[in-house]
Amino acid sequence: xxxLLVAALAVRQMAVVLRQPPGERLTDLETxxxxxxxxxxxxxLYDTDRFTGTPFSGLVLKPLTRTAEQSxxxxxxxxxxLLVAALGLVAARALPGPVGRRTALLAAPVAISLLxxxxxxxxAFHLGQVSILPVLLVLVGLFVVRGERRAGALIGVAAALQxxxxxxxxxxxxxxxxxxxxxxxxxxxxxxxxxWAAMPHxxxxxxxxxxxxxxxxxxxxxxANQSLHGALLRLGxxxxxxxxxxxxxxxxxxxxxxxxxxxYARDGQLLLAAAVTGCVAVAVxxxxxxxxxxxxxxxxxxxxxRSASDRLVWPAVVVLVTTLPGAMLLPNIGAVFxxxxxxxxxxxxxxxxxxxxxxxxxxxxxxPVPTAYAKPVPARWARVPLLxxxxxxxxxxxxxxxxxxxxxxxxxxxHVRLAATAGRDTAERxxxxxxSLEQWLHIDVEHRINHAVAGVGRLxxxxxxxxxxxxxxxxxxxxxxxxxxxxxDYRWARSTLGFATxxxxxxFWLYPLAPxxxxxxxxxxxxxxxxxxxxQPDYGALTxxxxxxxxxxxxxxxxxxxxxxxxxxxxxxxxxxxxGALHPLFTxxxxxxxxxxxxxxxxxxxxVVALGxxxxxALAGPRRLRTGERGAGTEKRPPTPSPRGSAxxxxxxxxxxxxxxxxxxxxxxxxxxx
Length: 674
Prior knowledge:
The chain is mostly helical. The chain is 59% helix and 0% strand. The protein is elongated. It starts with a helix and ends with a helix.
């Protein structure tokens, strides 16, 4: 199944590239080898800023000008797919041992799939870049070919295509492979000298005038440049102070990163050492464009975290950062713009200098501290067994991963909601259907309530404020309290809310519905957004920001109902339960009074929330745990085997202890279990 997924991703990637108009696909390749490409020009390659490669790259690409025909795009794209497949196979083969049977079966298709969907590979496909080739040459030289000189030669050729890769020669030297280091340096020098002899003016322009290509291509302070140099320029530094600070930071990153890479290489984690070195090259290069950041994705092979619940945090962060744009990972708030704009660079620096990857000698390498799971609860009906794929986790989830997950899911929700529209006519036709059904059921109270509230200033202001404020504030507050005080219930509550939201997206997509305020001829008053001019085709101007026709089901009421249910079930005080029960009632009044939803929209919101609870029940069983379960957040460390009978590093030898006496758990633990 995974290999079928790989094939599907490959076909889709080719289709995405080749379906684009000729002037919009393989744009960098077209500027190089097209009829008016820079490789056809008799003058310098760098007369314009369209060619950013090394002179050796231009020398290699020159022969392609003779075959620059329509079929070249297909051949280039298919060749790039083969390079990605080869890179995934080599990376899967280079995993540090011992490798289990399951990992051996899944590693290659998973690696190729992740490469296919990553931003660097997608960017390289779109532009027609050759940035996949240097990474592949380095990994082939390190893990595939035999003989130090041949391995070094491949790395040297890769450095001739991408100069920052020459740092791998230093890694080879420091790890004792000095013949390979010398061969890499020699191959780089030979390729560069060959290009210098064939194109002396271009070589002078690239290496001297532009300082190894630092001034070529897009502006160095653009978001596409994810290097330390680009980040400093975006922070407002310029001139000699910026250059001095960049050189100092680059030297520090090189020293720290290469020392870590050498340590991992000697520990038997050569693939991680290569990824760390590549991340160092990304950070210290004057320009590191998005298609050159594959090293960041390879860094997910490192194992970080002693507990099993934390082991997936680093790979998940790397995958999210390398596959999703920064705008989806962090909100549109000015304070986080420096992080959002440099998220790939920050991840590369984390892999190179900060992330505490475990050595293979650590007792947690193969046996992390296990996650505390609840005992499986039998199904209420014997013929409908619970699905065994989801076990209730008692420990608190990692905060960073949880925030990223919530942000990504909400961003995806916003994109789908904005795209789920079938036009004004369809939405208004559905609105007339809902209005007619409510009239038949005698529940069409929206118009009377809307006009009654609009005539009372303070009441109108109250419901407007309630509608615009508490929709996000209350659910986030509940999730925060549960995360701190009741972790096991937090996971259960968060999952129910997530499933309810996903089900609501299906409703938005299948049944676009105009709310009462956007129904012409019915006389509703939009108390929140102001009057709408129905004579204008674009009267719903807010559709540029959000889909105004995503009314069925009402997530305003659905989320408030979820809040009410959670508070009634989990709040320790009666007055808290009463306030929780009032929240969905106030929200229902607000969405009707402001003419933002029909009454049946609230019914739809209640249905998706009920289905969310039902799905979680089917997957994880009842919320209440068995009597005697361990308190939430507690983890029991297993005894770790120590070499030659000695005590493991985190323990000291001691005499055998007497059997523990059975004690009654403290009140706090009993409360958590309840």
